[in-house]
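INPUT
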Amino acid sequence: MERVIGIDLGTTNSCVAIVEDGVPTVIPNRGGYKTTPSMVAITEAGKRLVGHIAKRQAITNAENTVYAAKRLIGRKWSSPQVKNAILTASYKIVEGPHGDVRIQLRDKTYSVPEISAMVLQEMKLFAEDYLSEPITKAVITVPAYFNDNQRQATKDAGQIAGLDVIRIVNEPTAAALAYGFGKNVEKTIAVFDLGGGTFDISVLEIGSGGVFKVIATAGDTFLGGEDFDARIIDWLVQGFREQHNVDLRQDRMALQRLKDASEKAKCELSTSLETEINLPFIISSNRNEALHLQRTLTRAELDTLCEDLVERCIEICKQTLEDARLDRDEIEDVVLVGGMTRMAKVQDSVRDFFGREPCKGVHPDEVVALGAAVQGAALVDESKQMILLDVTPHPLGIMTFGSNFEELIPQNTTVPTSRSKIFTTSRDNQTAVKILVMQGEHDKATDNELLGEFILTGLRRAAKGQVEIEVTFEINSDGIVSVSAKDLETGQQQSIQVTASSGLTKEEVGDMMESAKDYLVERRSTDEFEGIRQEAEKLISEIERMFPQVEQIVASSDFGRDAIGKARGIVERSRQAIVKKDAAAMKEQMESLTRTHRMFKGVVARPQG
Amino acid sequence: MSSSQPPSAESLDEGWGLFSDVPLPDDEDDTRTVQMSSPLFKGPPTFEEGTSDERDTMPPPVPVSEYVQTMMQQAAEDPEPSARPLGATFSWQGAMPPSSRRGEGPRAAVSVPARRRTAWSVPPTPRADAVDDDDDDDNNAGFTLIAFEPERLGGAVGDVEDPRFRDASSPAPGFDDLPFDDVIAASQRASAGLGFPTPPPVRPSNPPSSRREPSLPPLFGNLWESEPPPAAACSTSRTSPPTKRGIAVSSNPPRPQGGTQRYGSIGDASVQPRPTSATRAPIVASLPTPPPAPADPFDDVRELYDAGDFRSALVMAEALLETEPEHVEARECAAICRETLATKYLSRLGGRAKILRVAMPPDEIRWLSLDHKAGFLLSCIDGTSSIEEVLDVACMHEFEAIRILHDFRELGVIEILPDPRASRR
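OUTPUT
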C-alpha cells in the first residue's frame, strides 16, 4: 500500500506527517525541527533557500525572500487582498499573464503555486529521507475559508512539487481528526488556531462513526505570531532609541537580529516568567562605537504589549459563535492549534471566554499535519471508515438588479448540497438574462468574487417581473459548483460548471513541474557530490597524515617504494576532481583512496623490527 | 535598560588580560618571508600556505643572547670581509646592515657618537608589514640589542638618524641587495692597478618608490661628508640626494647598500658600485636633476601583491579604488586578492561544509573589538549551521563574511565542528 503524507502548508510554518504502524508521526526536517518555515529565498548567487535558512535571512535579503505566500495563492491580481499585500510585502508582486499574481525574485518571476511548490517539495524530501522511499501522494490542508481557486492553486502547487494531492482538507477538520483519533467521541468542539501569520476559529461537530462536520469558521488572515513579535521589536527599538538615540530599524542586520531575538524571547516567556534579550554589537554609533542591546522582558510586560492582539482573537471567537447561533456552553472542548497558543495570556483568555480549560492533549504545531496524515491513511485504506463533511466557506449566489448580491448557498453549508431560487426579469420585453455566479459575504455584488457567468436566452417577451427563471446551485462532494438557469415557462435551460482556476494553464503547470524535477535532480547530484567530497577529504587528510610515517618505514625496506608515488598520484587526482567538482571522477578515485588508506593503515600498524 | 553598559573595573582588567596576546584582525598581516642562509641560522624557516597563522614573523632562531654572542665572536675572529657569507637574505624589516654589525678599523673614524647609536632603528616603513606592530617588535628584537652595545661591536654602527640621508620610507637593505661581489671585484681591481670599473649608464629617474629604490645607507653619508671621494670615484651611479659639495649625481638610484665597513677595508674604491656596464657614466653635476615622475599609487599594491601579501594588497587596492574607482588594475588586483584570500581562509576553516560553534563565553565576546557586521555574523553561528549556511544567511559580501569568520577562528571566538550530515548522506 502506497504511503500518503499529510502536509500542513501553513502561512508561516509547514509540517509533514505520516501514519506509521497506525500511529500518526511528524517527520522532522534535516535540522531536527518538526516545523519548517514556509519561506523561500533566492540568494545573490541564485541559490534557492527554503525553510529555516530562508527565514534567518528574511530581513537582510527582504526583497528576495517570500513569506506568507499563502495569503496570495489562488487570488486574482485585482483582489483587495493582493492590493493590500503589494503595499505591505517586502518582495515584488507583479501581475501575471492571466490576471493572476506573480512574485519577482532577482531576475525571475514565479507564480505563487510555484513558490508554495518549493516548500511542498522540501517537505516531500524530508519525508523521503525519513522513509527512504519515494513519496508521491499527499493530503494538504488549507484554511476553511479558502475558496475554490485557492484550493485549486494549492493542488497545482502539490502537482508542481511532484505530488498527487489526493485530498484538500480544511485545517480545523484536520485538527479535529487528530484530536479525535483513536477516540470514540461525539462532541462539538472549537478549534482555536493562532499560527504565525493567521488566526482561525472553527466550530466542528464530531459525530458518531467518525463524521466530522465544520459548523462555522472565521478568522483574520493578518493576525498571528508575527504581530506579537513586532510588538516586542517595537519595544526594543523604542528603548534603544531612548538610550542611544539610534534607530535600529535603519539597519537590516540589526532588525534581523531583533526579529530573531524577539521570537526567541516570546517562546521563552511561554515557560518562564522573564527572559533576557542580549544582542551584543547590534549596531555601531555615529562615533563608530559598538553598541550592545541588553534588556529583560517579563511575561507581564509581554502580556501588556500584546493585550489588544489577544483581545482581537477573542472578539472573532465571539462573532463566530454568534454567526453559528451557538452558545459558549455548547462548546464541549477547545482545541488549541498553532505555536502562539502556548502563550499563557492566550490560554488564559481562551479559558475565560469559553469557560473551560482548553484541551492540551494535542501538539499545537503538529496537530493539523497529523490530522492530514490520518486522513491520507484513511483514504488509501479502504478498511477505515471515515466521513468528512466539509462546509462552504463563503456564501454563493448571483448578482441581481442594482448590483446586489443574492445569496443561494449560505456560508458553512455542508457539502454536497443543492439550492434553488426563482428570479424574474427586471425590464420589459427582456429576452435574455446574464447570470453572474459570485462568492462572498458582501451585500454589494461588486465586492464579492466573480466565479463565472453565462447567459440564458430565448425568454418570452413580457413585462418586467412576468418571466420566471429558476437558478439552481449545486456543489458535489468534490467541491465542484454547477449553476443552472431555467425558464420555467419554456423549460429552456443554460448551465455553467464553475471550475476552480489557480491562474495557471495546464501547460504552465507542466513546465513548472519539469523545472521542479530538474532542480531536484541537480540538488540530489550536489548532495551526492558533497557526501563523496567530504568522505574523500577525510581519506586524503588521513593519508597525508600517514605519509611521513609510511615513507620512513618504506625507506628502510626494499619494497613498496613505488607505492608512495602512486599514493601521491591518487591524492593529487582526487584533489583535482574535488576542485573541478567532477562527481564521476570523484567516484572513480574513491576506491583507490580507500585502498590506499587501508594500505597505509596496515603499514603503520605493522610492528617494525 | 542596560544596553552598552560600561564594564566593571575588575572584569575590564580581566578581559583585557585575556586578549592581550591575541592580535586583532585588523592588525594581522603578512610580513615578509625570512630566509637566512647564514651559518648562524640552522634550518631556515619557510612560509607555508595553510599554516594556522598568516603572520610570518620569524622568531629569532637562536636566543638573542646567543645570537649576539655569536656575532661578536665572529666579528672578533673574522676580520676579513671576504670570509663573510654572501648572498644571505635578511628581512629588511629591522635588519641592520650586516657590515655594521662588525666593527672594522678603517671606518671607525666615521662612526657617530655613542649617544646617537642607541637610536639605531630602521625607519618605519609604510609597507604592509608595518601594520602589525607586534610583528615589528618581534622582528627587531633580535637586532636592537646589538645597537645598544656599539662599543663592543667596534663602534661601527651606522646612524640612520642622519637627516641628510634618512629616508623614512626607505627600508634597510638586505644582504642579497649588497653588491659584495662587485665591491670585492672592484677592490681586487684597485689593488691590482686595474683602475676603477666602468660605471653603469645613467638611467631616467624612477618614481620615488622608496621601497623599490631605497636610498643610500646612512654610513655613506657620513663618509662623504667627512671624506669626499675623488670625482672619478663619485661619477658613478650614485644617486640623490646631492651633496652640498656638488658631487656628480646620477639619476639612477643605487641598489641599497648595507654598510660601509666592508668598503672601509678597501679604501675609497669601495664606493664604486657594480661595474656592469662598459660605458662610462657621464659627469652630470652640471646638469639639472630631472624632476621625479609622479608615483603610481598602484606600484605599492603591485609590490605587495608580488610579495604575496594579498591582504595588504587588497587593503591598498581598495583604498586606491575609493579615490580612483575606474582603476582597472586595482580592481582586478582586488578581485584576485579576494579570491585568493577567500580560498585560503576557507581552507583554514576546513571548507564550507564545516559547522561552526561559538567557543567564547558571551561575557568575553563583549570585550572584543567587533563591528555590528561581525556581531551579526556571530549571531548567525548557532552550532548547527554549516559555513555555507552561515554565508547564505549573512547576506553579506561573501569574502567579507569569510574573512570575519576566519578572524573569529583565529581569535578563538568560534570553533569548527565536523559536519554530522556528512555521515548521514
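end of record. The radius of gyration of chain B is 26 Å.
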